[in-house]
Amino acid sequence: MFNEQQFLLPFLIILCANGMKGVKNLPIDYAENPEETGQHHEGDIVLDDRNGILSAKSKWPKHRVPYVVKGSFSKKELSIINRVLNEFHQKTCIRFHKRKNENDFLIINNKSNGCWSNVGRLGGRQELNLESTKCFTNYGTTIHELMHTLGFYHEQNRYDRDDYVKVLWENIKNGMKVNFEKLKRNVASGYGVAYDYGSIMHYKATSFSKNGQPTLKALKKMNEDFQKMGQRQGFSASDINKINKMYKC
Fold first, then answer.
1. Which phi and psi angles does 145 have, rounded to 5°?
2. Separation CA 22–CA 188 (nearest Å)
3. Which one from 127, 145, 170, 224 is the annotated catalytic residue?
4. Average pLDDT for residues 161-178, to the nearest whole number?
Protein backbone atom coordinates (compact mmCIF):
# COMPACT_ATOMS: atom_id res chain seq x y z
CA MET A 1 0.00 0.00 0.00
CA PHE A 2 1.26 3.48 -0.83
CA ASN A 3 2.56 5.31 2.20
CA GLU A 4 2.50 9.05 1.61
CA GLN A 5 4.75 9.80 4.58
CA GLN A 6 7.39 7.49 3.18
CA PHE A 7 7.58 9.47 -0.03
CA LEU A 8 7.51 12.97 1.34
CA LEU A 9 10.81 14.46 0.31
CA PRO A 10 11.18 17.83 1.85
CA PHE A 11 13.86 18.86 -0.38
CA LEU A 12 11.92 22.01 0.04
CA ILE A 13 13.86 23.45 2.72
CA ILE A 14 16.89 21.63 2.84
CA LEU A 15 19.33 23.70 4.41
CA CYS A 16 22.76 24.37 5.24
CA ALA A 17 25.73 25.44 7.12
CA ASN A 18 28.41 25.88 9.63
CA GLY A 19 28.95 26.26 13.31
CA MET A 20 27.38 29.24 14.97
CA LYS A 21 27.82 30.83 18.36
CA GLY A 22 26.67 34.05 19.96
CA VAL A 23 25.86 37.10 17.93
CA LYS A 24 26.53 40.72 17.65
CA ASN A 25 25.89 43.44 15.17
CA LEU A 26 25.60 41.77 11.80
CA PRO A 27 25.97 43.72 8.56
CA ILE A 28 22.74 44.50 6.76
CA ASP A 29 22.52 44.95 3.01
CA TYR A 30 19.52 47.13 2.21
CA ALA A 31 19.62 46.63 -1.57
CA GLU A 32 16.84 44.36 -2.83
CA ASN A 33 17.32 41.04 -4.59
CA PRO A 34 15.00 41.10 -7.64
CA GLU A 35 13.55 37.66 -6.92
CA GLU A 36 12.40 38.87 -3.50
CA THR A 37 10.30 41.70 -4.92
CA GLY A 38 8.04 39.70 -7.23
CA GLN A 39 4.29 39.17 -6.93
CA HIS A 40 4.46 35.39 -6.54
CA HIS A 41 4.49 33.36 -3.33
CA GLU A 42 7.57 34.35 -1.29
CA GLY A 43 8.45 36.66 -4.19
CA ASP A 44 9.57 34.11 -6.76
CA ILE A 45 7.76 30.78 -6.24
CA VAL A 46 4.99 29.86 -8.67
CA LEU A 47 2.54 27.59 -6.88
CA ASP A 48 0.80 24.83 -8.81
CA ASP A 49 -1.94 22.44 -7.78
CA ARG A 50 0.29 19.57 -8.87
CA ASN A 51 2.93 20.78 -6.46
CA GLY A 52 1.01 20.71 -3.17
CA ILE A 53 2.89 17.79 -1.61
CA LEU A 54 6.43 17.18 -2.74
CA SER A 55 7.10 13.47 -3.12
CA ALA A 56 9.72 11.27 -4.71
CA LYS A 57 8.24 12.05 -8.11
CA SER A 58 8.99 15.71 -7.64
CA LYS A 59 12.71 15.09 -7.99
CA TRP A 60 14.24 15.01 -11.44
CA PRO A 61 15.00 11.35 -12.21
CA LYS A 62 18.60 10.23 -12.63
CA HIS A 63 19.74 13.76 -11.72
CA ARG A 64 18.96 14.91 -15.25
CA VAL A 65 17.00 18.05 -16.19
CA PRO A 66 16.10 18.44 -19.89
CA TYR A 67 15.82 22.13 -20.76
CA VAL A 68 15.13 24.57 -23.57
CA VAL A 69 16.22 28.21 -23.64
CA LYS A 70 13.66 30.51 -25.25
CA GLY A 71 13.24 34.25 -25.43
CA SER A 72 15.49 37.09 -26.51
CA PHE A 73 18.40 36.81 -24.08
CA SER A 74 21.51 38.85 -24.80
CA LYS A 75 24.88 37.15 -25.35
CA LYS A 76 25.94 38.21 -21.86
CA GLU A 77 22.79 36.75 -20.30
CA LEU A 78 23.17 33.48 -22.19
CA SER A 79 26.78 33.35 -21.03
CA ILE A 80 25.65 33.69 -17.40
CA ILE A 81 23.04 30.94 -17.83
CA ASN A 82 25.66 28.60 -19.33
CA ARG A 83 28.19 29.42 -16.60
CA VAL A 84 25.62 28.59 -13.93
CA LEU A 85 24.65 25.30 -15.57
CA ASN A 86 28.32 24.34 -15.82
CA GLU A 87 28.84 25.19 -12.16
CA PHE A 88 26.04 22.79 -11.22
CA HIS A 89 27.78 20.15 -13.34
CA GLN A 90 31.15 20.76 -11.69
CA LYS A 91 29.94 20.81 -8.09
CA THR A 92 26.98 18.42 -8.04
CA CYS A 93 25.71 15.34 -9.88
CA ILE A 94 22.88 17.36 -11.48
CA ARG A 95 23.06 17.40 -15.26
CA PHE A 96 21.15 19.96 -17.31
CA HIS A 97 20.99 18.86 -20.94
CA LYS A 98 19.28 20.17 -24.06
CA ARG A 99 15.85 18.62 -24.45
CA LYS A 100 15.36 16.05 -27.20
CA ASN A 101 11.88 14.57 -26.88
CA GLU A 102 11.46 14.23 -23.11
CA ASN A 103 7.95 14.80 -21.79
CA ASP A 104 9.12 16.50 -18.60
CA PHE A 105 11.34 19.49 -19.25
CA LEU A 106 12.26 23.01 -18.19
CA ILE A 107 11.88 26.12 -20.32
CA ILE A 108 14.18 29.00 -19.39
CA ASN A 109 12.45 32.13 -20.65
CA ASN A 110 12.36 35.90 -20.26
CA LYS A 111 8.89 36.60 -21.64
CA SER A 112 7.39 37.70 -18.30
CA ASN A 113 8.27 40.15 -15.56
CA GLY A 114 10.35 39.02 -12.62
CA CYS A 115 12.57 36.13 -11.61
CA TRP A 116 10.54 33.04 -10.69
CA SER A 117 10.21 29.27 -10.84
CA ASN A 118 8.12 26.36 -9.64
CA VAL A 119 9.54 24.16 -6.89
CA GLY A 120 10.59 20.68 -7.98
CA ARG A 121 9.59 18.71 -11.07
CA LEU A 122 5.92 19.13 -11.92
CA GLY A 123 5.65 16.75 -14.84
CA GLY A 124 5.28 18.04 -18.38
CA ARG A 125 6.44 21.48 -19.40
CA GLN A 126 7.40 23.98 -16.70
CA GLU A 127 9.00 27.41 -16.84
CA LEU A 128 11.70 29.38 -15.12
CA ASN A 129 11.55 33.09 -15.90
CA LEU A 130 14.58 35.39 -15.84
CA GLU A 131 13.56 38.90 -16.84
CA SER A 132 16.32 40.45 -18.92
CA THR A 133 18.68 42.83 -17.15
CA LYS A 134 16.80 42.72 -13.83
CA CYS A 135 17.46 39.05 -13.07
CA PHE A 136 21.07 39.20 -14.23
CA THR A 137 22.22 41.97 -11.92
CA ASN A 138 23.45 39.28 -9.52
CA TYR A 139 25.12 36.14 -10.85
CA GLY A 140 23.53 34.07 -8.08
CA THR A 141 19.92 34.86 -9.01
CA THR A 142 20.02 32.22 -11.76
CA ILE A 143 21.45 29.69 -9.28
CA HIS A 144 18.70 30.59 -6.79
CA GLU A 145 15.91 30.00 -9.30
CA LEU A 146 17.39 26.74 -10.55
CA MET A 147 17.59 25.48 -6.97
CA HIS A 148 13.84 26.10 -6.74
CA THR A 149 13.46 24.03 -9.91
CA LEU A 150 15.43 21.21 -8.28
CA GLY A 151 13.12 21.25 -5.25
CA PHE A 152 14.36 23.77 -2.69
CA TYR A 153 12.33 26.38 -0.83
CA HIS A 154 13.77 29.38 0.98
CA GLU A 155 16.12 28.82 3.90
CA GLN A 156 14.34 31.06 6.38
CA ASN A 157 11.07 29.12 5.95
CA ARG A 158 12.41 25.85 7.33
CA TYR A 159 10.61 24.46 10.37
CA ASP A 160 13.47 25.15 12.83
CA ARG A 161 14.21 28.70 11.68
CA ASP A 162 13.12 30.24 15.00
CA ASP A 163 16.32 28.89 16.53
CA TYR A 164 18.34 30.95 14.07
CA VAL A 165 16.36 34.04 13.06
CA LYS A 166 13.74 36.21 14.67
CA VAL A 167 11.01 37.42 12.34
CA LEU A 168 10.23 41.08 13.04
CA TRP A 169 6.59 40.95 12.05
CA GLU A 170 5.97 44.61 12.83
CA ASN A 171 8.28 45.66 9.97
CA ILE A 172 6.73 43.47 7.26
CA LYS A 173 4.55 45.02 4.54
CA ASN A 174 0.81 44.49 4.77
CA GLY A 175 -0.22 41.29 3.04
CA MET A 176 3.33 39.93 2.94
CA LYS A 177 3.50 38.07 6.25
CA VAL A 178 2.50 34.86 4.47
CA ASN A 179 5.96 34.88 2.91
CA PHE A 180 7.48 34.21 6.32
CA GLU A 181 5.39 31.18 7.26
CA LYS A 182 7.33 28.12 8.36
CA LEU A 183 7.08 24.83 6.51
CA LYS A 184 5.88 21.88 8.56
CA ARG A 185 8.43 19.46 9.89
CA ASN A 186 6.75 16.43 8.33
CA VAL A 187 7.26 17.85 4.84
CA ALA A 188 10.61 19.56 5.26
CA SER A 189 14.02 18.17 6.10
CA GLY A 190 17.46 19.63 6.47
CA TYR A 191 19.02 16.36 5.34
CA GLY A 192 21.35 16.72 8.30
CA VAL A 193 22.72 20.02 6.99
CA ALA A 194 22.56 22.88 9.49
CA TYR A 195 20.82 26.23 8.97
CA ASP A 196 22.89 28.57 6.80
CA TYR A 197 22.63 32.36 6.87
CA GLY A 198 24.94 32.38 3.85
CA SER A 199 22.77 30.10 1.72
CA ILE A 200 21.90 31.43 -1.70
CA MET A 201 18.32 30.49 -0.78
CA HIS A 202 18.16 32.87 2.21
CA TYR A 203 16.26 36.16 2.19
CA LYS A 204 17.95 39.46 2.88
CA ALA A 205 17.50 40.88 6.36
CA THR A 206 15.17 43.59 5.02
CA SER A 207 13.04 41.52 2.61
CA PHE A 208 9.42 42.73 2.34
CA SER A 209 10.13 45.59 4.77
CA LYS A 210 7.57 48.39 4.92
CA ASN A 211 9.85 50.87 6.62
CA GLY A 212 13.41 49.99 5.63
CA GLN A 213 13.99 48.24 8.94
CA PRO A 214 15.02 44.57 9.19
CA THR A 215 12.36 41.88 8.92
CA LEU A 216 14.80 39.14 9.92
CA LYS A 217 17.28 39.26 12.79
CA ALA A 218 20.04 36.65 13.06
CA LEU A 219 20.20 34.94 16.44
CA LYS A 220 23.52 33.19 15.89
CA LYS A 221 26.87 34.06 14.43
CA MET A 222 26.90 34.03 10.66
CA ASN A 223 29.04 31.46 8.90
CA GLU A 224 32.37 32.43 7.45
CA ASP A 225 31.50 31.83 3.80
CA PHE A 226 29.39 34.97 3.45
CA GLN A 227 28.75 37.75 5.91
CA LYS A 228 25.34 38.83 4.71
CA MET A 229 21.95 37.19 4.63
CA GLY A 230 20.60 37.20 1.10
CA GLN A 231 23.97 36.97 -0.66
CA ARG A 232 23.70 36.21 -4.37
CA GLN A 233 27.40 35.78 -5.14
CA GLY A 234 27.13 32.04 -5.61
CA PHE A 235 26.68 28.70 -3.88
CA SER A 236 27.60 28.39 -0.23
CA ALA A 237 29.35 25.14 0.70
CA SER A 238 26.18 23.89 2.32
CA ASP A 239 24.04 24.69 -0.74
CA ILE A 240 26.17 22.21 -2.65
CA ASN A 241 25.98 19.75 0.23
CA LYS A 242 22.18 20.00 0.25
CA ILE A 243 21.85 19.27 -3.45
CA ASN A 244 24.20 16.31 -3.28
CA LYS A 245 22.40 14.85 -0.26
CA MET A 246 18.93 15.30 -1.67
CA TYR A 247 19.84 13.74 -5.00
CA LYS A 248 22.11 11.12 -3.39
CA CYS A 249 25.07 12.12 -5.51
1. -70, -35
2. 26
3. 145
4. 95
For residues 206 and 173, is the Cβ–Cβ distance under 8 A?
Answer: no
86-115 average pLDDT score? 97
| Residue 148 labeled ligand binder | yes
- The whole-angstrom separation of Cα 40 and Cα 131 is 14
Burial class for 4, CB neighbours closer than 10 Å (0-12, 13-18, 19+)? exposed
Chain centroid to Cα 248, Å, comes to 19
Q: In the annotation, is 35 catalytic?
A: no
**CA-to-CA distance for 157 and 184, rounded, in angstroms?**
9
| Bridge partner list, 219 | none
The closest of 130, 143, 150 to 201, measured between CA atoms, is 143
Q: What is the pTM of this model?
A: 0.79
| SS3 category, 217 | strand
Domain 4-242 has CATH 3.40.390.10: yes
User: Of all residues in the chain, what percent carry a pLDDT higher than 90?
Assistant: 64
